[in-house]
Amino acid sequence: MIHKIRLYWPLIKSLQTGLLLSTGLAGYLSSRPPFHISLFFGLALSLFLAISGSTMLNMWYDRDIDAKMKRTHARPAASGQLDKKQVFLVGMLISILGIGLASLINPFYGLVVCAGWFFDVIVYTVWLKRRTCWSILWGGISGAMPILAGRVLAVGGIERIGVLLALSVLFWIPTHTLTYSMKFRGDYKAACIPTFPETYGEPFTRMTIAVSSILAAIAIGWASILIGLSAGLLSLIAVLTAVMLILAFATLRIHTDKMNFMLFRYASLYMLSAMIILSIQGLI
């Protein structure tokens, strides 16, 4: 029984879920709201459940294509270690609990969380992922919802800073995902999943990464200024952003898997560091 329960942990992609959760917490703390432990815990739990549930449903729906890729064929849903009906039911239950809790905390906050789930599961995974490489845009929108949701819960509505923070995540996501699609291009091709490298070629993909990185830098920099980030923290974000831009533009000239994966790894570190900085600002 314990072994079976452990098999569900990989289905939520804990690192990805943790990163998205950190954006939601940062969105909330960035407004410097009065700190209430129960509300903060409710925010963290509802986001964790909603994100985990949507990711588990992605695993359930994509089990057939995951089985065709070397990188993913051993996943519990793809390998048959877990029954597909059970994966679906657990994923739906966790999703309902997360969205339901979010709605009880605040209806508007719950609506944004639900929108993130809908864009991820229905629009991205079910509708577009197997049809067009532009599905990553809609997947990016779902990835931007946690930070917007956190900000909405803190300020009571959608405002300029919340939109900018959401855009910073939306534009960051191609830096993260397109480098991955180049590294595992053969896997995606074997599973018949359209990607930017296959559709438009690697030069266009690298240029897209560079442009997207610039837009992400502008969005997070603008939001940081409007939030009133201290000079020290703002300088730190500027340095982190400069490194990401350097790596993004380096991939235009250095066409190696090592450089691509370096950017992929740094992009995750960059976003997590930026979220920590925004959270620190909200706590001081």
Q: Please tell me what the overall shape is.
A: globular
Assembly form of the protein: single chain
N-end to C-end Cα span? 45 Å
Mean pLDDT: 93
Beta-strand percentage?
under 5%
Which residue ranges are poorly predicted, with pLDDT under 50 across at least 5 consecutive positions?
A: none
How many E-type strands?
0
Q: Tell me the number of helical segments per DSSP (H or I, 4 or more residues long).
A: 14
Can you offer a commentary on this structure?
By secondary structure, this protein is mostly helical. Helices cover 81% and strands 0% of the residues. Helix 2 packs antiparallel against helix 3, helix 3 packs antiparallel against helix 6 and helix 8 packs antiparallel against helix 9. The longest helix is centred in the last third of the chain and has 27 residues. The mean pLDDT is 93.
The gist of it:
With 284 residues, the chain is an all-alpha fold. It is built from 14 helices and no strands. Helix 3 runs antiparallel to helix 6 (84-105), helix 6 (84-105) runs antiparallel to helix 7 (107-128) and helix 7 (107-128) runs antiparallel to helix 8.
Write the layout of secondary structure elements.
Blueprint: H1 2-8, H2 14-29, H3 37-61, H4 63-66, H5 76-79, H6 84-105, H7 107-128, H8 135-155, H9 160-183, H10 185-190, H11 196-200, H12 202-227, H13 231-250, H14 257-283
Helix pairs in contact: 2-3, 2-8, 2-14, 3-6, 3-7, 6-7, 7-8, 8-9, 9-12, 9-14, 12-13, 13-14
